[in-house]
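User: Fold this, then the next.

Assistant: Folding the first:
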Amino acid sequence: LQRAGLPYPGQWGNATTWDTNAPATMVDQRPGVGAIAQWNSGWGHVGHVDVVTASYIEVTADNWGGGTTRHRIYNGSPYWPDNFIHALNPFGNIDSVSSPAPGHITVRGWTLDPSQRGGSIPIHVYVNGSFAGSATANTYRPDVPAAYNHYGANVGFNTTFGLAQSGGSKNVCVYAINVGAGDTNPLLGCRTVWTADPNPFGH
């Protein structure tokens, strides 16, 4: 986690709280090679996912008393992890979605990829399920490296898109596009915004 530029795990508390203290876009119940397997029972436990198949995963973990062990865990087993933390996938946040003019939406936020510590990555925007456009998250956001060390500040986006659709309520979703060793393009979130119809009308 430190190599990925994320907070020192000690700041995440015991292993049982890693799922709630990690960036929310990193945590799900889908195993992936390179992800962190996390259990909530007791003080919790974490391990590194080395192998993923249709029927089992293999996880390497350090023992409290010393030593490292590798376990094969089958689907449906009571020992299956509660969560998987995808620490190599992009993460970020949508700050706002607005409509500055009829038929247009503006998305503002930030995103970064642990594999691109000093670089910017693309975002894709979907409106009501249809692709609306892409942009590069490269605007200056000094608040981000203040919270996540080892990253540059040019990781923001503040972009306006014209819509081919008519006006009305729009569900706007933003995805961060993975460019490194991650395994998915995570959804940063969705917002609903109203935009006026850009087309003339009358009676």
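Now the next one, as you asked:
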Amino acid sequence: IFDDKLIDKYYKRIEKESSFSFNEEQKLAIKSAFTEPLVIVTGGPGTGKTTIATGVANLLVKYGKYDGIVYISAPTQEGKLGFLPGEITEKTFIYNEPFFEALVKLNINPHTAVNQLDVTNQKNGTGYIDAITHVYLRGCNFENKVVILDETQNYYCDELKKTLTRMSDNCKVIVIGHSGQVDLYHNPENSGFVRYLDHFKDD
């Protein structure tokens, strides 16, 4: 249970760890992320959306509320992923890079915390974060995780639905997006983010 006093303590901790100074809208986003099972965070570039979500997720895991973090990005050229060189981690690194940068801002070492960056992290007990794209979700289901869906303006409606249905009821889901940053090459009007934003606006 998170009361206002405890949430105030937490966002001050995130500010300290990330060197951010949060405005009232950002504080509201943090409070919602702590208290609601599904949160939609929107805002223009440079407003700290990914850092805020990552900071909240890390504290929730650190204090034993959830078992780990799952970060899911949206490649805007998923049809070309198969032609990119390297393994899955190398193919998707460019899409997960904003998340890795957020981890560094929060003094979290991605190379020891993210399972995909070193196969020994999970074995050694240091890995508690999975960073993937929605392209590779087939067969995945998530239990008791904080799940961050980033750049969801670049998910088509069916992709966003597919991703959200992978979450069990005991997950916390933070959906990040901005309708002014749609990079979909085909039918950008079918971005799932705006439709879901309209669907949940009165909740």
